[in-house]
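#data-curation
PF: Archiving a pair of folding outputs for the training set. Convention for this channel: one message per protein, sequence first, structure tokens after, nothing in between. First:
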Amino acid sequence: MDAREEKIYELLKKYFGFNDFKGQQKEVILSLLDGKDSFVLMPTGGGKSLCYQLPALMLEGTAIIISPLIALMKNQVDAMRGFSMENGVAHFLNSTLSKTEINAVKDDIMSGKTKLLYVAPESLTKEENLEFLKKFKISFYAVDEAHCISEWGHDFRPEYRRIRSIVNEIGRAPLMTLTATATPKVQHDIQKNLDMLDANVFKSSFRRPNLYYEVRPKINATKQIIKYIKDNPGKSGIIYCLSRKKVEELAEMLVVNQIKALPYHAGMDAATRSRNQDMFLNEEVDVIVATIAFGMGIDKPDVRFVIHYNIPKSLEGYYQETGRAGRDGGEGKCIAFYTYDDIQKLEKFMQNKPMNEQEIGKQLLAETVSYAESTTCRVRQLLNYFGEEMNEDCGNCDNCLNPKERFEGKEDVQTVLETIIAVKDGFKIDHFINILTGKVTSEISNYQHDKLPTFGIGSDEPPLYWKGVIRQMLIAKFIEKGIVNYGLLKVTEKGYDFYKNPYSIMLTRDTDYEAIEDQERDSEYGGTAAADEELYNMLKNLRKDIAKKLKLPPYVIFDDASLQDMAIQYPITIDELKNCQKVGQGKAQKFGQEFVDLIKQHIEINGIDRPEDLVIKSVGTSSESKRMIIRNIDSRMSLDDIADGMKMTLMELIEQLESFVDSGTTINIDYYLNSILDGADIDDIYTYFREDSENGTIEEALQEFGDDYSEEEIRLVRLKFICEMGN
């Protein structure tokens, strides 16, 4: 061991308390000390930050650490100050600092105290910062979270693509890039953009044997999450959601169910975000519910579970986020909830983006869907995505422990291809499902698709089955969705080849992912007990009798999801009944007494122990928010303006209104309906819900009307119908 190696071991023990390096840390540090550019690919928890922290302490001058998030900078600076006991050893330079604080930072740097300066790429571009950075010796540059450079990376930041030109202007020095997730394509993109194709490359294995991976059907996800957390008391966890609204709602639901949780998203003010993050790190709360704004670089070793309420936009993002579990080598459960509806929402969000972004986003999403619906070892699939081979199954994921049912799908795939070819493309998934199952809609009649040879050929299987077949054909690239004409199916070259020369192809049944009934799976890892089928049927009969007496469709009283929940929770008072799904105070008071009387009688006759520990308390819209919405409707304000004023989309506002109406509140939106629809159109939809709809679901109505009306229009007329007939 030479003098330089002795020195790095001495500093490793003195500042960081370790006796030895992890993985390739030592080789990375020696490469940097030799003045070489380095590309470092290490999984979360692999010790990337040490690769630049230790050499920064050794070398003359100040290391510039380019980092994407203010919270990440603060966390890293606090850690370095803790290691060295000298506050001036590390600083950050960003928009949160006052002029006085900026001057203090600059004084420490010019005096030689500061060994690491953290800056955001945006801060690098400011002229005053550029001029200042030219005044002192820079030991090296480190670009953290380097995947942000690539358009194919999961957190693309356009500012990152300017780093090379800025570095050239300030003054060249060795360059290190670090990331926890990069496919071979992203790696090449990073190196090419930073002009470091000849850099020393250090790749660690992506294998994390202590992490358990599972994808669950998104059925009563909130209840499953609450049950899981209550079954694992005191354990620290992160729950990721795609929208800020869902973050707030879910965090509130956890709190009312006696779980110590806080929200975190970019829409919160910086002080609240920072406080919530610190409370999580300091174990004052067990769970943080967050958007992807949370977690980049957060060094909390004992996160025991990472739950994705929504499946992420890319496998890179998913792998990095799950990598925050079990960084200490201990237990780490990674559970994702999946429904194809979430994928379709993400596809819709892409519609207004430039074409190249849509293409990239579409391919990244396709990889995610393929992973979620895979029947093979999840770890092997993840490693393969990052260019690493694993020769055996992990034995520690849901697919290894509970293999899915598979069946020969050659004939069904041929049937779907024949149907799409026959109609010459140009239609969405639901249209083809209607053809296959023999359902006559206005669109089917208009195009005479009920005359096709394949019309009704698949009627012995439910629509759900064909939706699964079509989706797996998308994954296999036999068919694809148009981008310009969003969602329209067309056969690919690979699909035509299969159609001409079919071969064996194994598919999986789709019931796991698009369950029709609102039921929950009972397993070691979560879910509550299945519904009491005898009670459920008794409740349905009672609902039918009441509906007949009141001359209403049965679902107006309580829908199937509400009855399922009653048959799980066994509510015996009106107060307990209002906590069941989609019931609320109003409906419980209006229709509930006969239902709770029946449930009480059923419990007494059968000697049933009520699962009181499984009763999930619900939380509605805040009373102030609800009052404001209803007040604006009473003053006949346009729903579009109400949504804008409350910083939500029209669909989000409609969902809020539906929750009010489900709980028994009556609202009058005739003034708005009359402004967007003719009276005949309103009558058309209204009559459908009163006379023709079996379950009153929006999905059913959308299939019935095809493209005649938008989803928003159908939902609003349904609101009017429920208010007038049920509330």
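PF: Second:
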Amino acid sequence: MIHKGQPMDDQLITLTSLAILKVDLDEGQRDYLDYLQSLIVHVLSTHRPDPVTEDMTSELLLQDFGLKIPLRGCQLVLRRMARKGLLKRQESVYVITGDLPSIDFSEKRIRAHGQISMVYSRLILFVNDTYDFNWSEADASRSLLAFLSKFGVDFLRAYIFNTALPNVPLSAPREQYVVGKFVKALYEANDPVFDNVIVLVKGHMYSNALVCPDLESIEKNFNRVTFYIDTTLMLNYLGLQGNEEYLIADELFSLIRHLQGKIAVFDHTIDEIRRVIIGAEQYLDSPAAEGKLVHEMRRSGQKRSDLILLRENLQDRLKEKQIHIHPTPPYHQLHQVSEVELEEAISSRVHYRNPEAIKHDISSVRSIYVLREGVIPKRLEDAIAVFITTNSGFAKAAFEVGQNHNSTKEVSSVITDYSIANVAWLKAPLGAPELPTKELMAACYAAMEPSASLWYKYLREIDSLKQSGVLTPDDHALLRVSPVVKEELMDLTLGSEEALSGGSIRTLLDRVKTDLVKGKESVLLKERKERLILATERDDLRRRGEKVESNVFWIAERASMLLCRILWGISIPILFCVAFASTFVTTPFVADSRLLTSILNTMLLISASFGFLKLAFDMSIPKLFKDLEKKLQAIIYQFLSKKLLRDD
């Protein structure tokens, strides 16, 4: 039972708001500014503050909806409401002029509560049965909210907060592991409760738009940006580090291209990719070999010859996948960053096992500075060049160093792949309907993997036990290469380094040996292959449905854009014809020429139209056509959806 006044209330309000946000934006086809206005109208109508200020509005949104919205975003909406006559501006504050539109969220809240309660109850049942934890609803709520906080936009100052979630609770590794395993179990079982989790994930991703005060910039595409990809993300896209990683990279790159952005890779990144592949070739059969690529090659049964073939044909493979290969820019004294400062910042956050890796990262950052040529972009959409990485520590270091340099003060030189995916998805959620699911599953798999620090501690422990004679060489090798080790390690420690000790390693060894006696490893491999076949079939069906749905969206977008351009092209000749006809009523006054007079009159008519729209509706002609384009797109999308897509 949830009692008012407990922290649980605040968390439930936030989760409920995320669920409502997802449903409203999916069904209503509204933009983010309209949605934020509906929230603000609700809180102002409910509380009737006098006067109305940005600070008060932001506080009321936090109180009623559990969402942290920047003051600049509130200010933008209040100004719009004042232009519509809902508010009256008096110096630096506003007053409510009359009755505000009635917006009732009660039914949506009740429905959302039911969905969230179902997730809570199933999560509690899962952890109690699987791990014998005595979790309460408060525990489930806190862990779930902390898990959702992973889906935030980092290292973009245009997003004032990285998430709209207020006061995100701390979560221990074991809680993240448990939630990840719970969600993975729902997904693999095709459990309907998984859809409720996706509602919350999509709601949180939508809410990230609300922390961007320049909400109108979300409508812009990436036609002025080239995204340069780091080694790990490119290995994912080449399918070398797991199917889940490939699907996410493929979805991200496809979405960026639809938004007219370019995908590229530096020459020096290609060199590093080759070095990584060569390392995997050399140590593929070595028990001491580490790294995701090696583990995935072993898991999938690929051979050294497969890696050699890929390495020799790497550039051709990249070109086939529409990846532009860009020469590493030469040094330019006017557009450089302090490499010493950058190296110190990166080294303090990232542990590099290979010292060459940090040189590659520094080269990538300084290349972005050169490509921007001193341009000071205010928005990601105008950034010219951005380096995309899977390493959040590297991205954070580049962001902080960049605060001292104009060209990267607002838009960092380095941004995480998830942040780009979230921003791109916010621009066209119907163009990549399954991206949130893929991001969620990636987060689950990441939560179930040992952290780098836990794994290194584990390796140090077993090496120490081998040197002291506690472990035999055979036991030591088994604990390094057995495919069940990581799974058993996480089940034993739940991701906590404190739970790892010599005694726990002995327990782990006993478990692995027991698995061997039972033939669990071969059974596990067989089960994995069977699950992979079933998952592939299921994912193929989902992908086909997703492909149709996304194609419908992009067709509707292109059709609406074409219709508006045709309309714009027709309107100018019509205005010219009107102006030309007027010269037969009045005497031509420009050099006694009907043509020159008509051209001038056309320009005057266009200027008058601009002025009238601005004065009467605070709208420009381009904005008018943009709004018309969005309305046409929604109409075409709904029409095609009814014809081509099955109802759920």
